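Q: What does the assembled structure look like for these inputs?
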Amino acid sequence: MKKKNIYLLIFILVLFGFALRSIVPINTKLLGPEGLTLGLDLKGGSQLLYKADLSKKDPSITDNEAMSSVIEKIQRRVNLYGTTEPTIQKQGADRILVQLPGVKDISDAISLIGKTALLDFREQKLDENGDPVLDDKGDWVFEDEPAKAEGRDGQERELTGEYLKLAHTNVDPYQGPVVVIEWDSEGGYLFEKITQRNLQKPLAIFLDNEKISAPIVQSVIMSGTPAQIEGRFTMDEAETLAIQLNSGALDVPLEIIGQENVDPTLGADSIQKSKRAAIIGIILLLLFMLIYYRLPGLIACISLGIYGVFLLAIFSTFPVTLTLSGIAGAILSLGMAVDANVLIFERMKEELRTGRTLGAAVEAGFNRAWTAIRDSNITTFIACAVLIWLGTSATFHASMVSGFAITLFIGVALSMFTAIIITRTFLRLIAASQFFATPAAYGVKI
Amino acid sequence: MIDLVGNKRWFFLISAIAMLIAIVSLAAFKLQPGIDFSGGTAITINFTPQVEQSESPQLQGQLRQEITEFGHPEAIIQFQKESSSFFVRTKFMSPEEVNELRDRLKTVLQREVETSIPLEMSPTIAAETARNAGLAVIIAAVAMLLYIAWAFRRMPKPFRWSTCAIIALIHDALIVMGVFSIMGKTANVEVDAMFITGLLTVIGYSINNTVVVFDRMRENMSKGISHDFAVMVNSSLLETLGRSLNTSLTTLCVILALFLFGGTTIHNFVMVLLIGLIAGTYSSIFIAGPLLVVWEKKEWGQLFSWLPFVKKPAY
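A:
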């Protein structure tokens, strides 16, 4: 029994060492480029200002409709890109303000958001004799208009990204990264007709009026079969294109007119004050634990310190973007970690009062407190799982809800570990050592 | 022994009045939508001589104070590093008001101030997102209801236990929203994205507290300390009272420090937590358990029998 505790202590210390190594020195590691990723509200980020060219909009919709549709599509792109809690706002009549938290490569983000991403297919241009037209370099020339076909209702329709159901990336053994697209039923029907007409001929794929490739149609692509867009992409380019296609082509072209690095939305001044306040609060909390629970209180303080280091190490190792809602989740989990310790100590005190020995009181305290800790934490886990699932789903995308739930989930899992493994091991070792055998050290009068 | 369960009608009365006020206020005044939901005006403020990066936080503090006194405590103020200017978003301001603000800044800050043409800006959070967040919480509450019923499956009628826990949760959320609704009417306090986050925290805290108290009731029930459900619940509440108060006090330490010394931009958020903490502690002690006693003993009628206009049960 005693040996097992010493092994556990060594295990905790080794783990603590690793955690500490990943965050210290705090300035360069925890707060450095590889450390914590903080959200727009806490750290600031990049601000991009776009101007929409409303003269190019479809005349059947109003300016406002075009702008809201563009904003909605930008929102979808940014969400699919995996950015946490961006700000996307219409400003004036034709400007769109986008604020993103620290993105690694801002030029990627700029093209992701601003590209129209209008996809279409074009047939080969033929001369009067039916021979392919060639340009000066001897390359094929393609039509200026997107390929059309008769739709199910007999109407001529251009096949564009509008008929796309889903786009995703794949790696083709010959072409490298490609984007696979699935058409909706009308799109599949049109595509089948177009490929039938162009069998063994090149069919160019155009994105924003630029040719990206012109593969030869090898077989008729039947309705319902996915098609493949090749274009010597890198994996990143293919992923960006898939996101853009999934979010839909922008209704009007955008031009970037401003780019700035901005301060946190919560204000650098205000954050400084709040940080100081949080430190005061935590010191008060630790003092309370020390005075009220004495020796176990000290142990709780130590295990909470270890808890804090572990939590920061996890947040800086895994790509979690911390925003205020994430911090709120972490604070709640800290509260629950304190609560777990309080539960155990209250139980221990009860057991000591009934006259049990210290060792027996430690064991009984843990066993009795365990069911309460287990059930309250599992309830929290379940609620978090639901919130993460719904918060990240495409139809819901309430990212502040999932940001909160993710950190709470991680924090609660860790708090169970701290209470059950760390606090218990420390208490067992002390109970066995007989150094502090007086009940007074535990705040109990007998 | 203190009789918490015996005095339950008083506790219920307090909560019922508080909830009633909350509901009436929410129905009458609703919640004041903050800048996240309503949109407003965006301006850029330039200073001459140019603001150095090092002096920006201090100047930002002064700027915030001035804009707050000007009637816009909700302002989001960000320093733009490339152009050394401040990007300010507030609720709607007319061009005249912007000019007035500029003149005021000139005199107070003793600097040459230039403001850009104010641009109208749209909300950053669609009302739909807030609705979705609410829906997500409701689904999460149903999941918790099912789990708590399962965790207490050895108890007779476990669904009553979990329903009481969820009622305590609704109680806490409703009171927080009610207070913000009243403050919205009387002191122009607005709700924003942070309010939603705060409510989530309150809900998590509430359910945690209630489950801990219920756990003790479950243990005492299995031990069979009393045939009387009310006596059992009462002694469970008293046994966990120390823990409930200590946990609340430790949490209060942190929240109160943030409330008193924290930055103004998170003030409303911390207030949500503070009210939620009080409501959550109260409901886990005085509402969840006693409510279960009423349900188990079918005392619904008796609960209100002391009111003069309720017919007394015949016994």
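The CA atoms of residues 46 and 114 of chain B lie 5 Å apart.
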